[in-house]
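Much of what follows relies on a compact textual record of a protein's fold. Each token is a code from a learned vocabulary of local backbone shapes. The record below shows the convention in full.
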Amino acid sequence: MGDRAAADGGEAVLLRDVVAALEQLFPPELAQSWDQVGLVSGDPEQPVRRVHFAVDPTLAVVQEAVAAGADLLVTHHPLLLRGIHSVATTSAKGATVTALVVADLALYVAHTNADSAAVGVNSALARACGLSDTTPLSEPEGTPMGLVGDLSESVSLQDFALGLASRLPAAPGGLRVAGPPQAPVTRVALLGGAGDSLFQEVRASGADVYVTADLRHHPALEAREEARGGPPYLVDAGHWASESLWLRHAADDLAAALSARGASVDTHVSDLCTDPWTFTIGARDVRDLEGDDA
């Protein structure tokens, strides 16, 4: 996804200053209570000249960041969400932690706080959906989750999904859609990443379609049964794809925040697709549904 050069060739900023800018953009207090966000590795006093952005802190992403000359890797998903008892390289997480430390590469995580931030994951997905004015879909414990808003004009479910697909990065699973292709869509609810816990809020919002990911068989089937064939229709856009749109915006927002403080860094957005799936066989295409109202 390419590089963006720093505004000048001046001295590197310190990691603590970059962290301060990130926490201004994505306040840690917006994170869910179960989440693990913030600085994972690195010395706050170390210099940062290049920041690498990715969805997942996989070993391949760490290696990509090192090859790109990054001093800081910013990811959406945590590396150490649950407790571990060893960082030996015999495990995937151990190998990743070791690679970070050996390369002197700092890691910072902005997860559910980036989901809920005003300039976060969901706002990036909302722009891809064609929404401009949005409101929170839900607010558990005072923290906004998801967004809902209206398109400038009604479109068919098929055209909406095709338009969204054109703005998302290509992923092996593509988009899965539940609903009649010609059904009208005006009001859109969305939640980047896994979102089948918010069906009740989606119904209450009056949305015609719900854009999210990781929709499991039984919750999705029950949601369609409750809808009696009508709205809200469902679009599963894929976990990685629905959240990766945020990366470029985050890189630009960080550069702007540091520039306002009289500092600058190079930014680079990962080119790696970390969707765990590789390819799909036998998927039903929308063209197979011609004349089918189901």
In short: The first strand starts at residue 3 and ends at 4. The longest helix spans residues 239-260. The chain has two domains: 3-114+242-267, 117-238. Residues 4-8 have pLDDT under 50 and may be disordered.
